[in-house]
Design a protein that fits this description.
alpha/beta; 3-stranded parallel sheet; 4 helices; 32% helix; 10% strand; globular
């Protein structure tokens, strides 16, 4: 997911280089998935600034511009979309399966 104010500026995963990306835990599946997604664009996890936040805090982080993008799971995805805190950006299942 992506901060709404960045939707016209960041249109490709490559543009996340140097940006703040949130996951829910160091060494978590979501952090692994972020790394795999970045690999599809020729980047590594070390190319972004990973911030660990619980899913319940990501809306606040988007609102405060503390993070640029985040890997989020349902039902938080729908809450962020419905409340306008984030826009859809890239789907890990589609990207990671394409990279195999």
């Amino acid at each position: 997911m992506l901060r709404p104010d960045l939707k016209d500026q960041i249109t490709d995963l490559k543009q996340l280089k140097g940006r703040v990306v949130s996951t829910n835990g160091a060494g978590s599946v979501s952090t692994y998935e972020v790394g795999k997604m970045l690999e599809t664009a020729g980047l590594k996890i070390s190319d972004v600034d990973v911030k660990v936040l619980p899913f319940t805090q990501i809306a606040l982080a988007f609102a405060n511009k503390a993070v640029d993008a985040a890997l989020v799971i349902p039902p938080f995805v729908y809450q962020l979309l419905d409340q306008g805190h984030a826009v859809g950006f890239a789907e890990p299942d589609k990207l990671c399966s394409r990279a195999r």
